[in-house]
Amino acid sequence: MASSIFKVAAAVAGGSILGVGYKLDQDVRAELSLHAPKLPWNHSGHLESLDHGSIRRGYMVYKQVCAACHSMRFLAFRNLVGVTHTEEEAKALAEEEQVQDGPDESGEMFLRPGKLADYFPMPFANDAAAAYANNGAIPPDLSFIALARHGGEDYIYHLLNGYCDAPAGVNLMEGQYFNPYFPGGAIGMAPPLYSEIIEYEDGTPATQSQLAKDVCTFMVWAASPEHDMRKKMGIKAMMILSTLAVFSYYIKRHKWALLKSRKLFYTPRA
Predict the structure, then answer these.
(1) What are the tens digits of pLDDT across the range 59-108?
(2) Domain spanning 31-225 has what CATH number?
(3) How far is CA 40 from CA 30, 64, 212, 246, 265, in A?
(4) pTM of the model
(5) What is the 8-class DSSP label of residue 43?
(6) Rg of the chain in Å (alpha carbons)
(7) From CA 95, how far away is CA 118, in angstroms rounded?
């Protein structure tokens, strides 16, 4: 009897120790991997649209900083027309790129200036070249990154601004950096943004937080170019449905008034 009680007590004590250890482990992990807090974006409301000036600045950040490693293979220069640039400006941006085309009459491939129909150029010829240039890591395509990552633009913003020194006990491999918002903490991308790394054409101060905010807005638009139109259609649909609801209620009252005012009598058979 005493031995059974001792075994039960030992089992309870062992379970308690394991529970405490698990809890401590989870606390430590929570400190090394942070959840991106929600930010008050000016396009997050039901009636708010994207800041197109911020989208244009975000394109500048992508082109001058991010495009060296990250592709946006699903975005063409024509998508910029009427959103961030005029048609002439978008054509000028496309013509700055040399695009491989062909074959020509002799069967050879050739380079030509870009057109509006061309997609953004790829920074690397293939994934193998991308991995070789980035210590074995393939930089993700940014076309739909705002939808592909949990937290969306909040995660991207905090990731770009979250680089810091690794805490004690965390060992990083060569070429890795510590970012608490990245799963696991160790990220192969060096801090990409610094204050005044580029100069905005509209005179907006190019602080690190402003750069991150603009490029996040640009990525939100790239992932959901129908963002503003979808909200406009939603407002129109709610207005139409509200009007129809009033008429539907009136017709319901009118047509059902006779039926609801009836009184039925049942005469039992003799």
Answers:
(1) 999 999 999 999 999 999 999 999 999 999 999 999 999 998 888 888 88
(2) 1.10.760.10
(3) 24, 27, 14, 35, 63
(4) 0.80
(5) T
(6) 30
(7) 10
